Amino acid sequence: MRDFLQINLNQTPWQAHPTLPGITARAHDVRLDGHPVIDTMMAQLGPQGAPWHQHETTCEIAYALSGSGMLLVGDQANPTRTPMSAGSIVFIAPKVPHAVTCDADNPLCILILHTLAAP
Q1: What number does CATH give the domain 9-116?
Q2: Contact residues for 25 (Cβ-Cβ < 8 A; gap 6+)
Q3: pLDDT at 118
């Protein structure tokens, strides 16, 4: 463990996302003294975006670095739709279903942090 860490995601190779098809990511698990692991990744979404999924025990913070699309949250049949573009940041609680659609000619690149929810 440590109390300070600097990483450069631009120096990390792109890899296929481990569970979401069509997404490539540069990822690190950050471990700091006195804090749970923070899953940190830069994700490039393909034109198909990110399929519906949810995180059982972590909160997701997503910051759009470039591109544009739509965050879909909640009920798949009638989701809440929130536009995303460079500079947008969203916070998603654990167990909340969500997906992302991308504009075909301008897919999103997103910085994502997953951290454990409060007990």
Answers
A1: 2.60.120.10
A2: 14, 15, 16, 17, 41, 42, 43, 44
A3: 66
